[in-house]
Design goal:
Strand content: 15-25%
CATH class of one domain: Alpha Beta
CATH superfamily of one domain: FAD/NAD(P)-binding domain
Bound molecules: flavin-adenine dinucleotide
Distance between the termini: 20 Å
CATH architecture of one domain: 3-Layer(bba) Sandwich
Structural class: alpha/beta
Oligomer: single chain
Length: about 475
């Protein structure tokens, strides 16, 4: 038995493990279902190209996160860069954000946006994202950008989506800003929470995961998929037949899956919890990565595509993030297509899944960036079954209570999908750092039941466990 069990070795779970160890606490086990840690922060390498599970750039303004990155950067040099991103509509490339940079768009589009902004009516309590856009930006911005773009991104009925996710993700505008941006080309790229980014210089966001994992004395136990959690007995059963008991559980697996695994649902509160699993919705993303045998240099890191005629919502250019992402003289494209599966999305099993969509995306990309089939050296499709969580009325009303009920059972469900949030890597690191203040006191409530012999038997890295057990003893 480990006092603290962490489920999921994505960035959140690894951060929780790192921060537990930083506190001198080693009576924990971190379980991961995949063969390698990283979750969404994994990368694949093909024919000299590196592809992330869609571009993953670090944006940070937080001292805890910056200090951790600084520490990790001794073994993992980082590049710091200014973001360049654009929107492509009406055959025009305009700098992000749309609501501040209309320069170059057809006059009727600019007129619609300005007119809509001026005549927008205040709505103190917009119930949907569309109502929020109409109240904040006006109908012109809605029609020409926000509605088609978000519809494509969420792949979900837009009227059911609330605005509670917007916050820092949607920069505001003003009449002055939008008129200035309509009559003059880009003045500044320094807009939004992601105006600057940090990325591993050696390429691939998995370098961050590798650096963080190297810091751990207790490596994650991979190939462990949670099958069942007996919430009353505090016992986990994995699909490989192994079991583990805990005093405190930190879960970063998707919340709907966590709820589905809970058994022993005798109490009404737990029965209500279990019912919630089908009320949590998210979309899935298909990420088509192309390695191109010649330079495709649009001088932007990524482009958003609001128009319906394009099947993708965004194309990124990984080779521009760090030189090692593609062989010299080559380039790469990371194409993102979203779709909705069900309340329990899965990894597709057949390789031809959504093939038509993928083929259409590649055909459009070839036209847009003028390359041919012969230029494509590698074509790698990655699937993200859990991508963007859907903020709807049900989620807004019930999520907090749901997480609080779990916490009453010493289960802390955190991370992008654990807490069912639209959040970034910075928040994943912080969630892992913060949860230990809740997890440690409840883990320390009960007498220490830790026996080094058991841990040594179960843990493949006996030497490092021994070394750190000594450290633990000397710290007590
Ligand atoms: C399309 C897209 C683009 C993004 N781009 C950026 C970006 O540019 N910058 C940024 O900062 N953030 C970005 N993010 C957000 C970022 O990926 C997440 O915030 C972060 O990676 C979440 O980490 P996590 O550990 O919470 O979740 P995950 O990475 O999902 O990790 C959860 C882990 O739990 C494991 N697991 C799941 N089920 C089980 C089970 N039953 N048993 C055991 N283990 C299980 C999984 O295998 C996984 O390793 C992006 C997200 C998406 C979807």
């Amino acid at each position: 038995m480990a006092k603290v069990v962490i489920i999921g070795a994505g960035l959140t779970g690894l951060s929780a493990a790192y921060h537990l160890e930083k506190e001198g606490f080693f009576d924990y086990t971190l379980f991961e279902k995949e063969a390698i840690p990283g979750g969404l922060c994994r990368s694949v390498r093909k024919k000299g190209f590196t592809f992330d599970y869609t571009g993953h750039l670090l944006h940070s303004n937080n001292p805890t996160v910056l200090a951790l990155l600084e520490k990790l950067s001794t073994a993992m040099p980082l590049v710091h860069a200014e973001r360049h991103s654009h929107i492509y509509s009406y055959n025009t490339l305009t700098p992000y954000p749309y609501q501040q940079q209309l320069y170059g768009l057809p006059p009727h589009v600019i007129a619609d946006c300005i007119e809509g902004f001026v005549s927008r009516t205040k709505n103190p309590n917009p119930r949907s994202f569309t109502a929020w856009v109409n109240a904040h930006f006006g109908s012109g911005f809605g029609t020409h950008f926000f509605f088609p773009y978000q519809q494509k991104l969420f792949a979900y009925e837009l009227e059911k989506v609330t605005a509670s996710w917007t916050g820092r993700f949607v920069p505001s505008t003003s009449l002055r800003k939008l008129i200035t941006g309509a009559v003059s080309p880009l003045l500044s790229t320094n807009v939004g929470y992601n105006a600057q980014f940090i990325y591993p210089a050696a390429g691939g966001i998995d370098q961050l995961i590798a650096a963080l994992t190297r810091e751990l004395a207790l490596p994650p136990l991979t190939h462990h998929t949670v099958h069942e959690i007996d919430i009353a007995q505090k016992k986990i059963t994995f699909t490989n037949g192994k079991t583990e008991s805990y005093q405190t559980l930190i879960s970063t697996m998707p919340l709907n899956q966590l709820l589905a695994t809970i058994t022993n649902n005798g109490t009404p509160a737990i029965k209500r919890l279990k019912k919630a699993e089908h009320s949590l919705h998210c979309n899935s993303v298909i990420n088509v990565n192309l390695g191109i045998a010649r330079p495709v240099r649009p001088h932007t890191h990524w482009i958003y595509y609001p128009e319906k005629s394009y099947p993708f919502y965004r194309i990124g250019f990984p080779a521009l993030l760090a030189p090692s992402m593609a062989p010299a003289g080559h380039s790469s494209l990371s194409i993102e297509i979203s779709h909705y599966q069900s309340s329990h999305p899965t990894q597709p099993s057949g390789i031809n899944h959504n093939q038509e969509l993928i083929d259409s995306a590649v055909a459009h990309a070839k036209k847009l960036f003028q390359f041919t089939d012969d230029d494509i050296l590698t074509h790698t499709v990655l699937h993200l079954p859990y991508a963007y969580v859907i903020y709807d009325q049900w989620r807004d009303k019930n999520l907090e209570g749901l997480l609080a009920t779990l916490a009453q059972h010493d289960m802390y469900s955190i991370g992008r999908y654990g807490s069912w949030h639209y959040s970034s890597m910075q928040e994943a690191i912080l969630a892992g750092a913060q949860v230990i203040h809740k997890a440690l006191p409840s883990a320390q409530k009960q007498p220490h039941s830790y026996t080094p012999a058991v841990v040594l038997e179960n843990n493949p890295k006996k030497e490092s466990v021994l070394r750190y057990n000594k450290k633990q003893i000397s710290m007590q």
